[in-house]
Every structure is written in structure tokens, then in C-alpha cells.
Amino acid sequence: MAANAALQRESAERQGMAQDMLEVSDREQRRIGQDLHDGLGQLLAGMAFLSQALATKLARHGMREMAEATQLVQLANQAMTWGRELVCGLSPIEVEGEGFLPALQLLATQTEWAY
């Protein structure tokens, strides 16, 4: 009986440790996703806006380089799309785990990336 109880305790302890490891991994993935959004995402958005402004100015003056500036805009937008998809993969929306409000905040962040 004592050996069986010890095995059950050990099994429960291992399951708890495994759950803790999964939670740490999930938190780290979310942190990385948020860091990507807050840092890289904002830089890429700024780059896209500045590139668009440059392309508009170049087009207004009839300069050939406008096509290259337009390519910069397209590349920045592609990078933002890729980053958004990466962040969504790292931080999927989960209503059950943390509750409705954090899930809604994450959805707002993901929508901000999209538009």
C-alpha cells in the first residue's frame, strides 16, 4: 500500500511539473510575440508609412525612383503580414485559459496589426 501511494504521489508530482513547464513555455511564447509586435511591428509600420510618403513625393515630381519606393512599401507590408502571422502563431487567442478580457485585448492587438 505504501509503495502504491508513493507511486501515485510521484506520478502526480511529475504531472504537475509537466504542466508547469508547459505554462512557462506558453508564457515565453506570448512574451516573444508581444515583443515582436511592440518592437518589430511598429518599426515596420513606420517604415511602410515613410516609404509611402516618399513614393508619393517622388511620383508628384515625376521621378523614376518612385517605382523603387513603391517596392519598399510593398516589402514593408509583406514583412508586417509575415510578422502578424508569426505573432498570431506564438500568441493564439485563448478565452478559456486567461479569461475573456485578455483574449479580447489580444484580438484587438491582432486586429491593429491587420489594419
What report would you give on this structure?
The chain has 115 residues and is mainly alpha-helical. It has one domain. The protein is 90% helix and 0% strand. The longest helix has 59 residues, at 2-60. The relative contact order is 0.10. The model has no long low-confidence stretch (mean pLDDT 81).
Write the layout of secondary structure elements.
Blueprint: H1 2-60, H2 66-90, H3 95-98, H4 100-114
Helix pairs in contact: 1-2
Characteristic terms for this protein:
115 residues, mainly alpha, 4 helices, Signal transduction histidine kinase subgroup 3 dimerisation and phosphoacceptor domain-containing protein, Sig_transdc_His_kin_sub3_dim/P, phosphorelay sensor kinase activity, protein dimerization activity
Query: How many helical stretches?
Result: 4
Give the N-terminus to C-terminus distance in angstroms: 62 Å
Structural class computed from helices and strand pairing: mainly alpha
Count the domains: 1
How large is the radius of gyration? 23 Å
Biggest β-sheet description: none
Q: Regions with pLDDT < 50 over 5+ consecutive residues?
A: none
Chain-averaged pLDDT: 81
Question: Helix coverage percent of residues?
Answer: over 70%
* Total E-strand runs: 0
Give the SSE order as H and E letters.
HHHH
Beta-strand content: under 5%
- Shape from CA axes? rod-shaped
Structure at a glance:
By secondary structure, the chain is mostly helical. It has one domain (2-114). It has helices spanning 2-60, 66-90, 95-98, 100-114.
